[in-house]
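quick one before i forget lol
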Amino acid sequence: MTETDWTPDFNTISDFEQLMGEEGVKLINEHVVKWAVEEKLADPTVVVADTTAQEAVIPYPNEMNMMATFVSAVAAASKNVGAALQGFVKRAGSLFQTAKKKLREFRLFAKDKTKAARMKLTSAMANIVEQVQDGLEVALDEASRQGMRLTKHRKRAWAKLRKLQATMGTLLPQIRYWIKTGWVAANKVVSLHIPEVYSIVRGKVGKKVEWSSLGCSGA
């Protein structure tokens, strides 16, 4: 790092931590703390900690995009988890196609439509998502009763479907609340795949809000 002007950003640091793993990061932290104590830069009798927010790499949480992501992710994952889920994909095929059309219409013509028209499109998509959600729940229950054996790949797809279903169970009522009142619901879900992420108002120039999760730093 001393031989270059390049500076790592939060994505680079996050990638590095993932590659090192929890144990690797722990060893690095221990080394840095011990070194700081040796250099008389830290007092080992005192512990100081604070919270820090690392911005999550997620797309802007547009309601239509999140609902469309849910539909496409469910369709993709369901194809890999047994006959019950494959049957669900076939039955819900028309819903998946309608969802694509609604998203396309929203993206192409939303700027030219009134707020009422945009809300109508969002409400229509919410109705589609609700039907997909209901069908997915039935298919998952049916698959559970069949007691099928899952390979490693299928287990991942199964876990993903369960997580998507649970997250959308929270998000859909929040979207309907926003459509009805114009207000954002408390504890709003902003990412389907990382539901623990939430918005933090930073007030930075050109970026007033970040999507983050809190962690702890300090020694």
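fyi Strands lie at 50-55, 198-204, 207-217.
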